[in-house]
From TrEMBL:
InterPro entries associated with the record: NTP_transf_5
Organism annotation: Paracoccus salipaludis
Pfam families, sorted: NTP_transf_5
Domain of life: Bacteria
Protein name: Nucleotidyltransferase family protein
Amino acid sequence: MRRGQEEQMGFSEETIASVRGDSLPEIGVLLAASAPAGSAPLPGGAGRSPDPDRLFDIARLNKMLGQLPVSPAGLPPGCAALAPRLLQVRLRIAAMNRRAMAVTAEASAALARAGLRHVVLKGPFQQMAVHGDPFRRPSGDIDLFVAPRDRRRAAAVLQALGFAAMEQEQALWWIPFLGEQHFRRDSDGAVIDLHHRLQQAGLPDWRGAAGVLDRAATQTHEGDAIPVLSPADGCLLMAVTLAKALLAHEPCGWAATELAHWLARLSPAERQELDGIAASGGQGQTLALGLALARACHDHPALAHGGGALRGLPDDPALLRDLVFQPWQRRAEAPRRRQMLRMLTEGRPHVLAAEAARAALSLRVQAALERRAKPSAR
């Protein structure tokens, strides 16, 4: 399975070997480089100087290499030699994201001609909305969202553009349980993830997620209007992304920073809208979790209030920062799958029961499909 294999390879024991142990100085550099304007520095004790190789690796694993300055003078003492590597990374990000933006515009125009409402999730267009810069983080796959009733028609539109469905042997798992299907075009290697739900198995469902289509904003790219998430929906999706990463024990410094930046840009009306969308969508606790993780990483007035306490979530900011940036250091303290679901569905026992059953069935279906595929792989 493409995604599962990537995650296992990307965060294998060998991959994280270089960042085991104390990475606090390097995380401090990333936090300072990525903080929203108006943030106060987080408290931290004196320690060793940042190690350049460790800094590069911890930034890479957290998808934050684009946050580091490319000027030698802007890097911490002893890390100036990273500048050429960081410049190469920035150039690769720019080339990758330009291609992603062009393919996104092509697919969006085709869906619009077919009369299919859609919205672009994450990627360089989100980076443009949040930072005014579409080259902050590499974007390989393109994420599009359509209403569930439009999934098949949207898939047909993508196929007419030369995209073919991937992982057909796993479709029974991807489509009903994760709410997405992946398409790849051989001519240029472009990959589009077509979403019709905004949920991860094992986390509470985002009720009424199709409402993001009604609230969509617009980004302009070379004269084309690209529908993107509204600021409120973008914040909530980042909270869902953080919950997913916490569940999978994946480093997600980029998402905590993205949420902090987006919240810092919200007007009072947009912040009120965010709270309303989260409450009506059954994502109130998920938003509270995202706020807690972003607050542990950045001290900004926009993060000071809201969210409320979450039963089962540690209240130690240093521990939460580790769960965001280096979860392999805190495996014993990380919430388990059942704890996460219970925390995010507190006060809704019927949702807890339904999502627990759905998650269990998801694992069984995935295992059955993998067993079925093994004979043909020999």
